[in-house]
Amino acid sequence: MVDLEQAILQTDEAQQRLSALRETEDYKSDKAELDKLQAEREALIKEVQNDLAVMSAEQQQQARKRLASKNADLEHVLRKLQQAEQQLGQELLREMTPKVQAVLRELIQSEGIGLLLQQSAVIHADNGFSVTAKVTDKLNQMAASE
Questions:
Q1: DSSP assigned state of 10
Q2: Model pTM greater than 0.70?
Q3: Are 37 and 73 in contact (CB under 8 A)?
Q4: Which one, out of 13, 84, 85, 141, has a CA that is 20 to 30 A from the CA of 24?
């Protein structure tokens, strides 16, 4: 079995490109906003927990609204960060598919593999049957020799 997405995303090239993405100003700005919103949310939760016993029903309602608004903002920024990483992952998958196919053909021949399934299609298999790490290693070797 093999997890092609994992094999590609664990390559040195993918890790370098992910690091580069995380160093862009847009990503850093969104990450800083996410961290700020998480801290504000935690402070709001603490405040509500401390004051809940003395809050009126109206104050509790207002606190719930503020918390819901903070959660929505947090989810929006988190979605932006995840989308940027997913987009990079999709680019990598598109770009590296020809290399992966060549590596798989080589592994199938050299390892004498008679059946190779995508890991997501397997209900159960011992990890000893996985060639994902070998695919990643071969992709890294190919990139180093280019």
A1: T
A2: yes
A3: yes
A4: 141
Tokens (6 digits) for 125? 């298999």
| CA 109 to chain centroid | 32
Nearest to 10 by CA among 109, 114, 140: 140
Residue type, 47: E
Q: Which two tokens stand for residue 18?
A: 């992910």
End-to-end CA distance of the chain: 27
Please say whether the beta carbons of 17 and 92 come within 8 A: yes
Q: Write 91-95 long-range contacts (CB < 8 A, 24+).
A: 92/8, 92/9, 92/13, 92/14, 92/17, 93/4, 93/5, 93/8
